[in-house]
Design brief:
The complex is a heterodimer of chains A (about 250) and B (about 375).
Chain A: E1 3-8, H1 12-22, E2 28-34, H2 37-47, E3 51-55, H3 63-70, E4 77-82, H4 86-94, E5 99-101, H5 106-123, H6 134-144, E6 150-155, E7 158-163, E8 167-173, E9 176-181, E10 184-188, H7 192-198, E11 204-208, E12 211-214, E13 218-223, E14 229-233, E15 238-241, H8 243-246
Parallel strand pairs in A: 1-2, 1-3, 3-4, 4-5
Antiparallel strand pairs in A: 6-7, 8-9, 8-12, 9-10, 11-12, 13-14, 14-15
Chain B: H1 5-34, H2 40-67, H3 78-111, H4 117-199, H5 201-219, E1 226-228, H6 229-247, E2 251-257, E3 265-267, H7 272-283, E4 289-298, E5 301-307, H8 320-333, E6 338-343, E7 349-356, H9 359-363
Classes of the chains: A alpha/beta (about 250), B alpha+beta (about 375).
Chain lengths: ~250, ~375
């Protein structure tokens, strides 16, 4: 079978290096190259590669950010590449993940590629080797870097990177949440509870079953009926602080 | 350091005898107030002789205090306290006896009469009643002064030691911060070389040579952390030479430096993380980018600027590079510096460091 591979690295020469090494592998075709995390997310969804060579250090959205955005369960087989990142390497060791350290020679690259082939063979029914558990890796990393600082949202068929600090408030919408940012809004496939867990509590608080607010964007509170409070945002939006969540108000000051 | 230990030693004794001398002068004037008919010179000579004797006896107390200093106001030190109390009573009593002898000798010398020892012995108890308590107080003051000086010296020594430790700690921390930045760049560059070897051997060749320059300068970094701006710029030049090969002609660099500032002292390797950021964020996803380095003077401040023409910095997260620069400047200048980051969406980012031009002059 032929493996369809995607190369992700912000450096031209680093991508070129992988291309060179893949020339000798007749069963691998490079379906795309990405110079940023954002491009990578788009390419993984559009092209559906079997294998991704993923550089970890990239500006804006890094390799782990790509996995987070795509979803660990929906990532293709992934070979991590890193120049020097003790933090990431520790995580790889803990979860027994394969990775390539820059610079690498042909022999090391081929060994890693051979392993990747075995992961992919399993998908084709060969059942040779279990893929590394990306979900466990991401859960481990989250413990060390708990708060999100950017989220990737989809607008039409484009991906946008939204800074979490710029999100004014978040609204529940069935199985989605809606992020209100600078006059527009974006849907994100996520639950309220799941998202709240990843948001910095110094910045975000739940005020209602169906609303989370960014404290930086609140203008004032007004008393409302039956113990509820009205939260007025800087742009004039009116939200309700329900009694259930009111106990937390004391902690805000 | 103009003081040799010998000079400090001499000065200490000058003080010791000087104070006893002044005390003699003081007591002579007191006596003169009581007996205005006496000759002031006679009173002065008498008191200087008496105080000189006490000064000699006081040396015993100093010697004792030096051998068995009182370390604390604690019960366990009771023996030392007792020792000094007994010694001071003894020295005061002996001193007073000798002072009386001197007084008698002076009287004898003045009146030229026969020395009436019986009469002199009769006067002794009255002399003791009048002067013993004052004299004992002098001796206590001497012991107290010795201990005060001793504590002050220790405190000074400890302060100097603390300052030295702090400086060494800051240096080590600084080195660690500096080293934190290198490995990433180093491994990425080696990786680029391994790509170039196959695609463009000449470029690989020149990249290895530039990397050699870069590493040499890293190793030659002075331990005192401050280098002339000229050196820092040479270092940045070797760094940029590598980046130029990596970005393959997408990068152009402008340098605007006032000549007179080339010798100004700056922390070594302070610009590299800023330049690295400018390249990362300024050139990412763009076919071409311009990097501008500026050094200018703003009254007694040196202003270093690194500017790119990229997307513009968004101030929500600082990378390792910038927080590293912040930490190093904080250690070196302790708040007498300033970092400004100006980002305009679509018009690039400007990072400006304002550093005191003469850090040593201000520290003094």
């Amino acid at each position: 079978m032929t493996l369809r591979a995607l190369i992700v690295d912000d450096e031209t020469l680093a991508r070129q290096r992988i291309r060179q090494l893949l020339q000798k592998a007749a069963d691998v075709t490079v379906v795309g190259e990405c110079a940023s995390g954002l491009e990578a997310v788009q390419a993984i969804e559009d092209l559906g590669p079997d294998l991704v060579f993923l550089d970890i250090q990239m500006p804006e959205l890094d390799g782990f950010g790509v996995i987070e955005a795509v979803g660990a369960d929906r990532m293709p087989a992934t070979l991590f590449i890193t120049a020097y990142d003790q933090h990431a390497l520790r995580a790889f060791e803990v979860h027994a993940l394969d990775y390539l350290l820059k610079p690498f020679d042909a022999a090391r690259f081929q060994a890693a590629l051979a392993r990747a082939r075995r992961w992919c063979a399993r998908d084709a029914g060969g059942a040779q080797e279990a893929r590394p558990d990306l979900e466990a890796l991401m859960a481990g990393l989250r413990k060390e870097r708990p708060w999100l600082d950017r989220v990737l949202v989809k607008q039409g068929d484009r991906h946008l990177l939204v800074r979490v600090a710029a999100v004014q408030w978040i609204e529940a919408e069935d199985n989605y949440v809606r992020l209100h940012v600078e006059g527009t809004s974006h849907l994100l496939r996520q639950t309220m509870a799941g998202l709240l867990e990843r948001l910095d509590p110094r910045l975000f608080r739940r005020i209602h079953r169906s609303a989370i607010v960014n404290l930086d964007f609140i203008r004032e509170f007004q008393p409302w009926t039956s113990g509820d409070q009205l939260v007025i945002m800087r742009d004039g939006t009116r939200l309700t602080l329900s009694r259930t969540y009111r106990d937390q108000v004391g902690e805000w000051s | 350091m103009s003081d040799t230990p010998g000079a400090a030693f001499d000065r200490r004794w000058a003080w010791y005898w000087g104070i006893w001398g002044l005390l003699g002068l003081y007591m002579a004037s007191w006596d003169w107030a009581l007996y205005p008919s006496s000759s002031p010179f006679r009173l002065l000579a008498l008191n200087l002789c008496q105080n000189g004797t006490w000064g000699l006896l006081g040396l015993f107390l100093v010697w004792l205090a030096n051998r068995r200093p009182i370390e604390a106001f604690a019960w366990r030190e009771r023996r030392t306290w007792g020792l000094h109390l007994a010694a001071s009573v003894l020295v005061a009593a002996l001193g007073l006896f000798l002072a009386y002898v001197i007084l008698i000798l002076f009287t004898y010398w003045e009146w030229q009469g026969p020395l009436d020892l019986a009469k002199a012995a009769k006067g002794l108890p009255r002399f003791y009643r009048a002067y013993f308590h004052t004299n004992l107080l002098f001796m206590w003051a001497l012991v107290a002064a010795f201990h005060g000086l001793r504590i002050y010296r220790r405190y000074k020594a400890r302060e100097v030691e603390a300052a030295r430790l702090e400086a060494r700690f800051a240096e080590a921390q600084n080195l660690a911060l500096r080293m934190q930045l290198q490995p990433h760049f180093l491994f990425n560059t080696l990786h680029s070389v391994s790509a170039l070897i196959h695609a463009d051997p000449d470029a690989a060749d020149s990249m290895i040579s530039r990397l050699g320059d870069f590493l040499r300068m890293t190793l030659e970094a002075p331990p005192d952390q401050l280098v002339p701006l000229r050196k820092e710029l040479a270092f940045i030049e070797s760094y940029l030479a590598i980046e130029r090969i990596r970005f393959q002609d997408r990068l152009s660099v402008r340098v605007e430096i006032t000549q007179e500032l080339l010798e100004a002292k700056v922390p070594s390797f302070i610009l590299q993380p800023l330049v690295e950021n400018a390249l990362k964020h300024g050139l990412a996803d763009r076919p071409r980018g311009v990097l501008t380095l500026r050094a200018k003077r703003d009254s007694d401040l040196l202003v270093l600027e690194v500017q790119d023409d990229g997307e513009g910095f968004v101030a929500d997260r600082e990378g390792v590079g910038l927080s590293n620069v912040r930490a190093r400047l904080g250690l070196l200048y302790k708040g007498r510096h300033c970092i400004d980051i100006l980002g305009m969406a679509g018009h690039g980012t400007l990072v400006a460091l304002r550093l005191p031009l003469d850090p040593d002059a201000e520290r003094a």
